[in-house]
Amino acid sequence: MGRMEGKIAIVTGAGAGIGESISKHFAREGAAVVCNDINEEAVNATVTEIEAAGGRAVAFAADVAPESSAIKMVELAQENFGGLTCIVNNAVHDLTFGPMTEVTLEDWKRTFDVNLHSAFLLSKHAIPVMAAGGGGSIIHVASQLGGVARPGRVWYCAAKGALINMAKAMALDFADQNIRVNSLSPGPVETGRYVKNFKDAEEARRNNFTLFNRLGHPDEIATGAVFLASDESSFMTGADLLIDGGFTAV
Hints:
The protein is of the alpha/beta class. Helix content is 44%, strand content 15%. Helix 3 packs parallel to helix 4 (105-132) and helix 4 (105-132) packs parallel to helix 5.
């Protein structure tokens, strides 16, 4: 406990799954957290649970895609907690599995607005504040599918691959401001997002493709995020932390 004492974070997609777990782990370790999600009820529930456990958090229910959302989240961190030391770009917009010939241009653009462009916008507005405070950590939640591929996921693979390389390029640009930038790549994790792509939870669990023959748990990803956001990873930047149960080992 206390590994993130004094840290101030923004987590997007904090209403459920991996983002919810990251927010709760951050707060448990002493960080103050601005929790964002497009689902107002879900993000309020995350904040309520954090506060009930003695943590500090504030909810911001909004679509992460507009630039105004990025600006507001940074303002909320400053107004409520006095600064900003970490952002976690985790928000995601999904499409039904299928070949790219069945993806409309509108849907393609929407996935990139949420899955990639929002990470650019939040980083752009967070970096000056982080630099003024002495530095910090930026985490892009990517995926094992940023490095390998699965059928019917071209839009997802493209955006996640971009996040991984964007982290590397950003690491070069902002190291002299003591800002570390890494990506965090989960493998298949048992969340509502993952399960809804299958007939039921049991079918989803059978389709895990991991060496452990099971899906991951959101908490197993959140512990990686704590490491990247804390001073324990102070000599780590431009890297991809892969937590995929061996998915990419074969």
